[in-house]
Amino acid sequence: MEEAKNPTAAEPKKLNFLEEIIEDDLKSGRVTSVMTRFPPEPNGYLHLGHAKSLCINFGLAQKYGGKTNLRYDDTNPTKEDTEYVDAIKEDIKWMGFHWDKELYASDYFDQLYEWAEQLIKEGLAYVDDQTQEEISKGRGTVDTPGTESPWRNRSVEENLRLFREMKAGKYADGEKVLRAKIDMASPNMMFRDPLLYRIKHASHHRTGDKWCIYPMYDFTHGQCDSIEHITHSICTLEFDVHKPLYDWFIKTLRIWPSHQYEFARLNLTYTLMSKRKLLELVQKGLVSGWDDPRMPTLCGVRRRGYTAEALKMFCEKIGVSKRDQMMDIQLLEWCVRQDLNARANRYMVVRNPLKLTITDWEPGKVEWFDCPLNPADPEGATRKVPFTGELYIEREDFMEDAPKKFFRLKPGGEVRLKYTYIIKCEEVVKDEDGNVVELRCSHDPSTRPGGGEWRSVKGTIHWVSVPHATEITVRNYDRLFTKEDMNDIPEGKDYKDYLNPESLTVAKAFAEPALADDQSGIAVQFERTGYFFKDPDSTPEGLIFNKTTSLKDSYRPE
Ligand code: ATP
Ligand code: MG
To answer: Does residue 6 carry a pLDDT above 70?
Structure first.
């Protein structure tokens, strides 16, 4: 018999453009193994954009059996701090990535200095006494060539002496700079005598007061890549214009040829990802800190209950592109739900309680139900849920004048209390003002799951037993900003004008007792409501849960 072809066999996944480049490089022998690096500047906490960069840099190295260095780009002593260095490492570990070497651009300051002297000696760099304004004016524009600095033709000896004096601390900040001597008329502005070193009398978080001159980004990054033999130096699109200079330094210094490749940075709706602005939110107290659950930082979304698995799923879905685009935050939330739906433990929590009394229940009797922690795994672990004659249900699960299609509780109607009995609403008790304060119900003992005859009703609602309920605090989070495209702030407006005043509301809720014993370490599902993550501010007496995301959403990924 002829064997049938399997029509569902998955097509091999199309390579992204970086994978194509790497496979070509391995085939042609330009490289024999893959080495990438993740180069954060330790001037803030990592955010969701960095998660994309992490997934690309570590992901590609993993896929091709290579390695990734963690290299701090620490050439700006006044903005950097060891607090950030430590936080960045914690975040990368949380994402589940392992770096090969932990390195710092500052490890190479001596080597970079030597290369600067080499350029001076070869007549390719000079000390410029112009002010910052004069220098930028002399640069010209895209349409007009720049003008040469009056100091451009100093002798090699004079340049060497002055540069050494700069290093020795003879000059004040801004008094002199070292520039490459390339071409003030180049159509590429980057080649119009770029700055190599600036004077900054500031203590560095690693080198202390050893240096008072610091190399510029362009004179640092490519050389560090070269020293570490980074085969694919992957960065965001805005560095595209720096690439010819990156190559020029490598060629001119005659060092190991690293290559740079650019991809589109991550932009997300309703989200800001500039470290400078995030720092301002923290410093002005507009959020509770870098790890405020509304922040797009990795420590923020972690405290919100997002998982590293969900972030990786998201990065996988958005892929790697060469064109800037705005991604929908709902796709990220969808990924969070996908991951948590499969893994989160379930508990019943009532947020806006209405008392429900089972009038035909023996007073004081407690019946314990074994309920699955995750219905996707019915054979898996269970939790014990106590049922009594005194319950809370969600106020919105009862309606006095209910429309026909309302399948939850109404006067004279029946509903199943999740995992337990079908009950019937016999009487509605109101206070003097006519507010419903209690429902009096009967239960049908024959409807106990697993016993008697199975009978079904349309509605199932969650509940908790009043004498067993744990009162908890719930922090409900919403988007931090109200504007969809936070990269496009109109003239005269400030990004802070779009802060959502309702991004945090706090409420009490009543939980079944097993919630307090949850050891899963990830967010849990409050049944029929959403996912919630235990906040580190919790104490055994005062549990606090942060809303991760609601349970359902009409959003579907394309
Ligand atoms: P910001 O502009 O938020 O301050 P940055 O680019 O200055 O970010 P770095 O610490 O220099 O932050 O970035 C480390 C790496 O992460 C770089 O390779 C950078 O290109 C990448 N990266 C930063 N932001 C994003 C983003 N939104 N999407 C993808 N990659 C990003
Ligand atoms: Mg940067």
So the answer is: no
